[in-house]
């Protein structure tokens, strides 16, 4: 049976992060994940995870200054990028999170590419010491115009160039349907480099029960590939989170 991870960056946002973890457990999720948990003491999150038996699968490096969306492909901002990576890994270590998503930011061109690769090599070295994996995630050009990483093809090239065993692709079906489409074949092709999968309806980014992607088919296809890690429910509920969980019950 497909397992699901509640993305607490979008689900139960009215609750504190520890209470959102508890709500996810009560709703039947198999795991949780979040965006930027840094304002919540890591010990409080760790306690909620221990109490519920859930794992926080991933968290993100900080976005930077207002209007920014990550620091790690920004030439000249290397010191801040490293600090963001160190902060995310340290938090992940306290709460037992296996994956850190290193956010690129708004940038373009060869210098940005070289900066991202160098910062990712640093991230992979630091993460390896803790037995953790670094994720990179293409974002779509409507929600994040100018974001450095826009396609899974670009991510695969970067993963190859970084050349570390612990860097993987965060395959967000929502973003990649918009940017590349052909989700069934693309999931098959990218499987060897996939570290986590997320989903939401397209184009609204709501519950996965409407819009242009048939998630019954996508979930069955992912299972047929032998991928059985929890899939990240990263959508914005149309109403309350609890009212919108009908898709989980089938
Ligand atoms: O927006 C997404 O999709 C994410 O997964 C975030 O973690 C990064 O913006
Ligand atoms: Mg995502």
Would you write up a description of this structure?
The chain has an eight-stranded parallel beta sheet with strand order 2-1-8-7-6-5-4-3. The chain has a single domain, classed as Alpha-Beta Barrel (TIM Barrel). The protein contains eight helices and eight strands. The protein is globular and about 45 Å long. By secondary structure, the chain is of the alpha/beta class. The protein has helices at 17-27, 42-52, 78-95, 110-129, 152-162, 173-179, 183-190, 215-224; strands spanning 4-7, 31-33, 58-60, 99-101, 133-136, 167-172, 194-199, 231-233. The model has no long low-confidence stretch (mean pLDDT 98). Helix 1 runs parallel beside helix 2. Strand 3, helix 3 and strand 4 form a beta-alpha-beta unit. The structure holds ligand LASSHYVV and magnesium ion. Residues 137, 172, 198, 234 line the site of magnesium ion.
In short:
With 250 residues, this protein is of the alpha/beta class.
Bound molecules: the ligand O=C(O)C(=O)[C@@H](O)CO, magnesium ion
The assigned structural class equals alpha/beta
Mean pLDDT: 98
Fill in the CATH topology: TIM Barrel
Strand order of the largest sheet: 2-1-8-7-6-5-4-3
Radius of gyration: 17 Å
Number of strands: 8
- Sheet having the most strands: 8 strands, parallel
Instruction: Provide the helix percentage.
Output: 25-40%
Write down the CATH class: Alpha Beta
Q: What is the H/E order?
A: EHEHEHEHEHEHHEHE
Q: How many helices in DSSP terms?
A: 8
CATH superfamily: Divalent-metal-dependent TIM barrel enzymes
From the N-terminal CA to the C-terminal CA, the straight-line distance is 11 Å
Family: Belongs to the hyi family.
GO molecular function: hydroxypyruvate isomerase activity
Keywords: Isomerase, Pyruvate
InterPro entries: HyI-like (IPR026040), Sugar_Epim/Isomerase (IPR050417), Xyl_isomerase-like_sf (IPR036237), Xyl_isomerase-like_TIM-brl (IPR013022)
């Amino acid at each position: 049976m497909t397992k699901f991870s509640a993305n607490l960056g979008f689900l139960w946002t009215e609750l504190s992060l520890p209470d959102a973890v508890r709500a996810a457990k009560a709703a039947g999720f198999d795991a949780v994940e979040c965006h930027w948990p840094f304002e919540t003491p890591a010990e409080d999150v760790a306690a909620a995870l221990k109490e519920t038996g859930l794992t926080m699968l991933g968290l993100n490096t900080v976005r930077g200054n207002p209007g920014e969306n990550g620091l790690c492909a920004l030439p000249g901002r290397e010191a801040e990028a490293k600090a963001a990576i160190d902060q995310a890994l340290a938090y992940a270590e306290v709460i037992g999170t296996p994956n850190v998503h290193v956010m690129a930011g708004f940038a373009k061109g060869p210098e940005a590419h070289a900066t991202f690769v160098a910062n990712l090599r640093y991230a992979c070295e630091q993460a390896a010491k803790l037995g953790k994996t670094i994720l990179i995630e293409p974002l779509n050009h409507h929600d994040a115009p100018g974001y450095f990483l826009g396609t899974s093809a670009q991510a695969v090239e970067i993963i190859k160039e970084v050349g570390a065993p612990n860097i993987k692709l965060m395959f967000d079906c929502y973003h990649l349907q918009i940017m590349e489409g052909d989700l069934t074949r693309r999931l098959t092709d990218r499987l060897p480099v996939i570290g986590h999968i997320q989903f939401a309806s397209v184009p609204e980014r709501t519950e996965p029960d409407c819009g242009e992607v048939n998630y019954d088919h996508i979930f069955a296809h992912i299972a047929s590939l032998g991928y059985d890690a929890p899939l990240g429910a990263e959508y914005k509920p149309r109403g309350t989170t609890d009212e919108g969980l009908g898709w989980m019950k089938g």
